[in-house]
Amino acid sequence: MKINAVFSRSPAFALAKKEWYSLCISPAFYGIVIFFLVFTSVWLFNFQNFFLREMATLRPYFAGFPLAFTLVIPGITMKSWAEERKLGSIELLLTMPFSEWDLVLGKFLCFLYALFCMLALTVPLPLSLLPLGLFDGGVIVCEYVGAFLLGAAAGAVGLFLSSLSKNQAAAFLGSAAVLIVVMLASQIPFSQSVPAPLVEVINFVSLSFHFESFSRGMLDSRDLLFFILTAVLFLFLNTRVLLFRKWS
After folding, report:
1. Mind listing the pLDDT tens digit for each residue in 148-180?
2. What is the pLDDT of residue 3?
3. From the CB of residue 186, how many other CB atoms can be counted at a distance below 10 Å?
4. CB-hemisphere CA count at 13 Å for 52?
5. Which of 152, 148, 127, 11 has the alpha carbon at shortest distance from 77?
6. Where does 121-167 have alpha helices with state H?
7. Which conformational region is residue 49 in: left (phi greater than 0), alpha (psi within -120 to 50 degrees), or beta?
8. Which of 54, 123, 125, 210 has the most CB atoms in a 10 Å sphere around its CB?
């Protein structure tokens, strides 16, 4: 009860509940979730030919998550700040007794809950495949943890870019373009002759590269820290954008 009372008095949590209600009444959100579920299923069974592999692993399934996130996450985050700016309600938020961190964390908490629900809806697919082979449950859990961290970092990027955009279309296109680059950057060395030092830089900024250890069932502290620091960095940049708008 005390924990609930603390959360209920938290400005960030109150804003997160308001954002979640707004998301739940948006038909576009349900369309995004359905697209994600269909895309990842088609990716596994059609593009990865799961039944022809004869291997008890869901790594091909989770390999499609970074690509799916490049479209799904911008679809969720594009409305967060761009719509507030278009409607003029961002000025009202900035005059309320909330800090910039309260506002940003409220949006981010709502996104994290939406991401969690979206990933939870994929669980029935792995469960339906478990009787077909000896799957490693620990690896699957690790893959879900990696997918959540990957989505959280990408969501922070999307929220930041939404705060810079004047409308939802610009926010979506900008976020999708940036996420495609940072998600798929690790594929460049395989298709081009790239110097080794540049390969290291490309891999370092690639979100999908840091996701690979999770997809192999390894909880690498370096990749875990990378996702957390990436999310914190872009949330901080988001607060700076709000602070600039507040005093401009």
Report:
1. 999 999 999 999 999 998 889 999 999 999 999
2. 42
3. 21
4. 6
5. 152
6. 124-129, 137-164
7. left
8. 210
Q: What is the pTM of this model?
A: 0.91
How many other β-carbons are positioned within 10 Å of the β-carbon of residue 164?
Answer: 16
Q: 205-231: buried (b, 16+ CB within 10 Å) or exposed (e) per residue?
A: ebbbbbbbbbbebeeeeebbebbeebb
Give how far Cα 148 sits from Cα of 25, 65, 96, 132, 154, Å.
24, 10, 31, 26, 10
Radius of gyration, alpha carbons of the chain:
19
**Phi, psi angles (nearest 5°) of residue 111:** -60, -45
Task: Tell which phi-psi region holds residue 54, choosing left (phi > 0), alpha (psi between -120 and 50) or beta.
Answer: left
b/e map of 35-57 (b: 16 or more CB within 10 Å)? ebbebbeebbeeebebeeeeeeb
The values of phi and psi at residue 47, to 5°, are -80, -35
Going from N- to C-terminal start, the domains of the chain cover 11-247
For 166, phi then psi, to 5°, come to: -90, -20
Q: Residues 6 or more apart from 232 whose CB is under 8 A from it?
A: 156
